[in-house]
Amino acid sequence: MSTMVATNKRSFGSVLWDYLTTVDHKKIAILYLVAGGFFFIVGGLEAMAIRWQLVTPMNDFVSAGLYNELITMHGTKMIFLAAMPLIFAFMNAVVPLQIGARDVAFPFLNSLGFWLFLFGGIMLNVGWITGGAADAGWTAYAPLSTTSPGEGVDYYVLGLQISGAGTLIGGINFLVTIVNMRAPGMTYMRMPLFTWTAFVASALILFAFPALTVGLFLMMFDRLFGSGFFDPNMGGNSVIWQHLFWIFGHPEVYILALPAFGIFSEIIATFSRKRLFGYSAMVFATVLIGFLGFMVWAHHMFTVGMGPAANSIFAVATMAIAIPTGIKIFNWLFTLWGGNIQINTAMLWSLGFIPTFTLGGMTGVMVAAASADYQFHDSYFVVAHFHYVIVGGVVFALFAATHYWWPKMFGKILNETLGKITFWFFFIGFHMTFFIQHFLGLMGMPRRYWVYKEGQGLDLGNAISTAGAFLMAIGTIVLLYNVIITSVKGEKVGGDPWGARTLEWAIPSPPPFYNFKQLPLVRGLDPLWIEKTEGRDGMTPAEPIGDIHMPNNSFLPFIMSLGFFIAGFGFIYQKYDLAWLSLVFIGMGIALGSMLMRSVKDDLGYHIHKEDLVKEAKE
Amino acid sequence: MSEHDVLNPKEMPLNPEKATLEGKNKFIGFWFFLGGETVLFASLFGTYLALNGSTNGGSSSQELFGLELVFIMTMLLLTSSLTSVYAMYHMKNNDFKKMQIWLGITVALGLGFLGFEIYEFYHYIHHYEFTLRSSAFGSAFYTLVGFHGGHVVFGLSWIIALMIRNAKRGLNLYNAPKFYIASLYWHFIDVVWVFIFTVVYLMGVL
């Protein structure tokens, strides 16, 4: 194929077209990384505005209304548009390589999932420029959300609907990839832990997101078509939204946290030069957390008035999750124990994660105690708790993964000195910002209020918290600088810069677009490490060199997502003027038309020929 | 061997829908998708059960529902599921013509179901003023049953598109998985209807 030798400089237009149409999981990973990173920075700026508003009592940096929009968009953006896609970035970049596959099961759907996420993410933010973003909190409880004026919450509903569809598609894709595409010898109990956690997280996506889909549809009908699901005046019940939201929302926490656990498991094993301690217990704990994750949603609703029986059941189920999570914490510690530990940036994040996440887990058990939760509920104690879990668990993992897999994705190691500077600024800043918030909450500071009064003992704590936020911002800026400086000046590295254990390090960095010239023969857990200990350079191939079947690029996923995006505007604005329904027809026409086109037009892919592979090897 | 020869073997395998890796992926991926769809409908059923008594002073399910019409609709849809099984039987025997005929009957039965459903909705709206906006019960009813109806429309369009697209070239290993998962989808729609028939209509007239 001619694309194989096209290593010379290409024009901007051709690179852009390549990324718009790509179905290669490694390029889609980069798209997720860039888009997720962008939303992470925007969400971070919103967080800075929130902290600046709270730096002194009765501050007037932002108005009450704008403050509501800031907290809503910060939460929604960080969960759906930053954490999820960044997790997807690493799942895309790594999982197919770790199981020895040439691509995901559905390359076309992989691309569709990304473009749906991106257009949904843009839609969510359109409210900022049309006169008000969503302002009902990231949980969008009815009736606050159903009665919120303007189109902010409509953008929230439609944006999440579109990007949620993309996430669901991505989840199914990874499930099938891991079930069907593993290399010869890669049994389930030989899969690296990151692949395992990606697998369980994908299953959680599959069974959790449809509940959000329904919740969003009901809210859309209530807001735009006059139905009465959440409106007591029509016999509706606003608590239904809370149930649907949290049936999705609690598994969502594990959708984020489990891959984070997987990332740390890879990094800690690699840099301790030891096999992961208690591998099978780790797998068991992962599956158990995934299962229990569905049993606990109502612990977000202890104060709704479900009664002592329901509260007790959900409290006990919630506390039970501490057991498999504790198994994991101890297994990481035992992996470190007696290991030949090398401390670099990825490892620093992992070591910082263990105590930080343990703190978040501990406050988790505290808020799980239903009677005590009446005191904690809607206070800064809860804000501190979930930031310890989501930042201390997920964001630390994303930073760690960025450093660990950057050489695999881009062929260069991120600068270690700058990396360590980022770590220390962010780590210290994080604890400064959020540790004190536990006490602010216990002293009675409620969440989501835009001001607090002087002389209530909240001034110093809030000032410290804001100062910490600035340290985190500095850390993030250093990381951005690191990315730029590494891209410009960094030295190229080989396939296995860390002396690692799993399959992705057995091929060049960045990998060729077909990943494995010959599928590897997997002979145990940590397959590359096994080969190395037996004195071999790389993997033993499981097949002779032969033709490789590859999928064709396609522009349809972009067009399809654009169609839904256009239809979204029609759905929103038809509430003012039915003429806007024309946009619904145009948008849905584009989307359904491209689906029809995808169905009727054969897409057989192409082959890389054996002779070309041999010739390439000689060059 | 070119792609054409691979996908058009001289002798079709026993399970043409699972003979290629793409086919296997589609097969298992679609089962996963149906798992997600199950949660989707479970959420809608849960919402319906929470709101089916909230009539807001309007018509109740006892006043609205008549089992005669719904019985006919149920029979149409159940039969269409059976005929789609026949279609898949002929697909596995590599008898494309008979498969098309049975798929055609499936589509006809599905269209019949859809016609009755449209009539039913029309009837409720014009004779009882029972709409999406009249009560929370109305919202829940039209959303649950309407989502199912939407699935029927999508499933019919899907099967028709496949029938027309492949009418001339017959069966091969590329389109066999497509026919197969479309029929899986059709079965799923049927299963959901069984639950709607029970939860909405049977429990509604009691």
TrEMBL record, chain A:
Please report the stretch or stretches of sequence annotated as the Cytochrome oxidase subunit I profile domain.
11-523
| Enzyme Commission code(s) on record | 7.1.1.9
| Catalytic activity field | 4 Fe(II)-[cytochrome c] + O2 + 8 H(+)(in) = 4 Fe(III)-[cytochrome c] + 2 H2O + 4 H(+)(out)
Name the enzyme's class.
translocase
Keywords of this protein's UniProt record, alphabetized? Cell membrane, Copper, Electron transport, Heme, Iron, Membrane, Metal-binding, Oxidoreductase, Respiratory chain, Translocase, Transmembrane, Transmembrane helix, Transport
GO MF terms listed in the record are: cytochrome-c oxidase activity; heme binding; metal ion binding; oxidoreductase activity
Q: Does the keyword Heme apply?
A: yes
How is this protein annotated for GO cellular component? Answer: plasma membrane
Compartment(s) where it occurs, according to its Swiss-Prot or TrEMBL record? Cell membrane
Domain of life assignment: Bacteria
Pathway listed? Energy metabolism; oxidative phosphorylation
Enumerate the transmembrane spans.
Answer: 29-50, 78-100, 112-135, 155-181, 193-220, 240-264, 276-297, 309-334, 346-370, 382-406, 418-440, 460-484, 555-573, 579-597
Subcellular location, principal: membrane
Q: Name one GO biological process term.
A: electron transport coupled proton transport
InterPro entries listed in its UniProt record: Cyt_c_oxase-like_su1_dom, Cyt_c_oxase-like_su1_sf, Cyt_C_Oxase_1, Cyt_c_Oxase_su1_BS, Cyt_c_oxidase_su1_bac
Query: Which Pfam families does the UniProt record give?
Result: COX1 (PF00115)
Q: How does it sit in the membrane?
A: Multi-pass membrane protein
The function of this protein is:
Cytochrome c oxidase is the component of the respiratory chain that catalyzes the reduction of oxygen to water. Subunits 1-3 form the functional core of the enzyme complex. CO I is the catalytic subunit of the enzyme. Electrons originating in cytochrome c are transferred via the copper A center of subunit 2 and heme A of subunit 1 to the bimetallic center formed by heme A3 and copper B.
Q: Which family does it belong to?
A: Belongs to the heme-copper respiratory oxidase family.
Quote the PANTHER family the UniProt record gives: CYTOCHROME C OXIDASE SUBUNIT 1
Q: What is this protein called?
A: Cytochrome c oxidase subunit 1
Q: What is the lineage of its organism?
A: Bacteria, Bacillati, Bacillota, Bacilli, Bacillales
UniProtKB/TrEMBL annotation, chain B:
Q: How does it sit in the membrane?
A: Multi-pass membrane protein
- Signal peptide positions are none
| Keywords (A to Z) from UniProt | Cell membrane, Membrane, Transmembrane, Transmembrane helix
Which stretches make up the Heme-copper oxidase subunit III family profile domain?
1-205
User: Transit peptide as a keyword?
Assistant: no
Q: Which InterPro entries match?
A: Cyt_c/ubiquinol_Oxase_su3, Cyt_c_oxidase-like_su3, Cyt_c_oxidase_su3-like_sf, Cyt_c_oxidase_su3_a-hlx, Ubiquinol_oxase_su3_dom
Q: Name one Pfam family in it.
A: COX3
CDD domains attached to this UniProt entry: Ubiquinol_oxidase_III
Per UniProt, subcellular location reads as: Cell membrane
> Where are its TM segments located?
28-49, 69-89, 101-119, 139-164, 184-204
GO MF terms on file? cytochrome-c oxidase activity
Q: What does the record list as GO biological process?
A: aerobic electron transport chain
CC annotations in GO: plasma membrane
| PROSITE patterns (UniProt xref) | COX3 (PS50253)
Protein name per its UniProtKB record: Cytochrome (Ubi)quinol oxidase subunit III
The organism encoding this protein is Gracilibacillus oryzae
Lineage runs: Bacteria, Bacillati, Bacillota, Bacilli, Bacillales
